[in-house]
Amino acid sequence: MNTPATRGIALITGASSGIGATYAERLARRGHDLLLVARDAQRLDDLARRLGAEYGVAVEVMPADLTRKSDVLAVEQRLREDSRITLLVNNAGVAMNGTLAAADLDQAETMIQLNVVALTRLAAAAAANFSAAGRGGIINLGSVVALAPEMFNAVYSATKAYVLSLTQTLAGELRGAGVQLQAVMPGVTRTEIWERSGTDASALPPSMIMEVGEMVDAALAGFDQQELVTIPSLPDAADWDAFVGARAALGPNLSHNQAAARYK
User: Fold this and answer.
1) What is the pLDDT of residues 54-83, one digit of tens each?
2) What is the Rg, in whole angstroms, of the alpha carbon atoms belonging to the chain?
3) H runs (alpha helix) in 174-258
4) What is the pLDDT of residue 144?
5) pLDDT tens for each residue of 145-182
């Protein structure tokens, strides 16, 4: 990792509460200056004052609603042009509950805008800035439902599968550029996202719910260990390696000039 004097600014989206606010606290503790992005300006201001006083770092707030393209473009421009930014934590996101057939599709579209479109634009801007400088890191917050889509809402699960795929592909594109990529894949984490989505997290077994501080600490430990994909609750990394290996074994047979004999 860089020394505190050279760590630069960490831009964190969805920073006013939950996972984003916890990343802000942990990164301030590590010596990063912060640029905090979220809709709730009052919460951002309160967090900025507290972290600046407690850790002696510079904290700037940038109120933005990333479901609005104009706000996304403003954050994107800052990411492209500010050479002091060295880390993007792409955390902003929402969830929804219920089946696709019964879904409010306007709500689903808003979720796709935030979880997919905004995340993609900001990742692209950071990739351009960081690769030109030969340094930096991009942390994209996904979810384990990308690996077990049957467990939750169809659209939410699909957005998180996108986050995983984007991160893996972008890591390949930036190989050798000095930019570190990480997809963080939490399970159920105790944050406000559940109440906002209409899901009663208290109905889940307590053994499934991780406290947000523990989740972020594990994610940052995975980042320090150069993991491309971090699943905070997974006991044995060999299980993920086996999953990746099984996928790779499909590779030679994914594209041929004839259909498989079993379809004839």
Assistant:
1) 999 999 999 999 999 999 999 999 999 999
2) 19
3) 193-197, 212-224, 237-250
4) 95
5) 999 988 878 999 999 999 999 999 999 999 999 999 99
Tens digit of each residue's pLDDT (9 = 90 or more) over 194-207: 566 556 666 667 77
Phi first, then psi, for residue 204 (nearest 5°) are: -85, 155
Q: Is 256 helix (H, G, I), strand (E, B) or coil?
A: coil
**Which DSSP state fits 37?**
E
Cβ neighbours for 4, distance < 8 A, ≥ 6 positions apart: 30, 31
**Domains recognised in the chain with CATH numbers:** 4-238 (3.40.50.720)
Return d(Cα 227, Cα 182) in angstroms, integer: 6
Whether the predicted model's global pTM rises above the 0.90 cut: yes
Do residues 84 and 8 touch, judged by C-beta distance below 8 A?
Answer: yes
Report yes or no: 87 and 8 within 8 Å, Cβ to Cβ: yes
Residue type, position 205, single letter: P
122 touches 72 (CB < 8 A): yes
